[in-house]
Known about the structure:
The longest helix has 32 residues, at 149-180. By secondary structure, the chain is mostly helical. It is 76% helix and 0% strand. The chain has two domains: 8-100, Rna Polymerase Sigma Factor, Chain: A; 104-180, Arc Repressor Mutant, subunit A (Orthogonal Bundle).
Amino acid sequence: MPNEQPTEETFLRVFLRSEDDLRAYARALLPTWEVVDEVMQEASLVMWRKLDQLRDESEFLPWAKVIVRFESLKARRTFARDRHQFGDDVFELLAAEDESNDEEVWQRERLAMTSCLGKFEPAQRDLVLLPYRGHGAVVELATDSGKTVNSLYKKIGRLREKLTVCIEHEMARSGANRELL
Length: 181
């Protein structure tokens, strides 16, 4: 990008490479996936318009996260009347915490999560991911299976604990492997 006019191809390449990280960042700041979709749409338009400000492709993710952060703030103002929203202090804390994470750690966490989810039985993996499939998915499964919503959430909680332990183990192992190199 230095000394060259940004192209549609350049933008698409760096955006698509970073989109999952940007969506995860936005989700940490926003209440629902629907709002994340709206914010990502607006943020991508802002990124496209401001792409000439980017000096190097390697700086895209931190630069884009700033844009996503500001678009998230705008969206939060729209939903400010909802009492279930985080206060600005919590929002800033979440955003600052993410900025302190480095890209390599995010990649290791993603690999650890993928590895750990792969160790689950398909039914367990589906259940732990169920709450992220949309509003009412857990209630619908409870109704269909004849179980209570509470029992499903308890099982999801146990699976999340198991997943967390596995991820922490994988992260520690990959950190130890990096120190050996």
